[in-house]
Amino acid sequence: MNHKSAITQQEEQWLLKKHIAEKARADAAEERERILKQAIWELIK
Questions:
Q1: Each residue's pLDDT tens digit, 17-30
Q2: Which superkingdom is the protein from (predicted)?
Q3: What pLDDT sits at residue 34?
Q4: HSE value, Cβ hemisphere, 13 Å, CA-based, for 41
């Protein structure tokens, strides 16, 4: 029998999905920042 001591497989899957969602949000925020910086640069050059 294979026992998980600290967290269950279901909890592990939930944490992985949460991590993936947080990474996607962070990536989207970085992309918005890049686009804004580019737009500002176009306005001031």
A1: 999 999 999 999 99
A2: Bacteria
A3: 98
A4: 6
Q: Find the mean pLDDT for residues 15-43.
A: 98
Compute the half-sphere exposure of residue 34: CA atoms within 13 Å on the CB side of its CA.
6
Query: Is-above-0.85 flag for pTM?
Result: no
**Cα–Cα distance, 39 to 26 (Å, whole number):** 20
What does the angle CA 32 – CA 28 – CA 23 come to, to the nearest 5 degrees? 150
Please state, in angstroms and rounded to a whole number, the distance separating the CA atoms of residues 2 and 23.
Answer: 30
Q: Which tokens go with 15? A: 């944490």
Q: How many CA atoms lie within 13 A of 13 on its CB side?
A: 3
